[in-house]
Request: fold
Amino acid sequence: MSSTLLLDTATWDLAVDTAGNIAVASEPYALAQDAASAIRTFAGEVFYNTSIGIPYFSQILGYAPPISLMKAYFNEAALTVPGVATSQCFITSWDNRVVTGQVQITAEDGTVSAASF
Reply:
């Protein structure tokens, strides 16, 4: 069973629990949140592995690509998360250069979960 630091869905920043400690998310939501984080990762952004991430600067921002291309990149990124078997992305808004949506993942054990990005 894996866990990850819980991120506030509005600010994508660390959240605290009722005791004031940094909150932790557990499966199945942890996998979905990790998939959403992978979708939000820019190519070259992760200093210990610059080969991962979505090519936002070179192929998305300023180019107005087809939604199908963005969904393909998003699903590919979500599938890099260990434990994620399938991924389906939904674009809920594309307004003023801001894309928001939801990733729905199926874990290797068959559990389904979703997180917004």
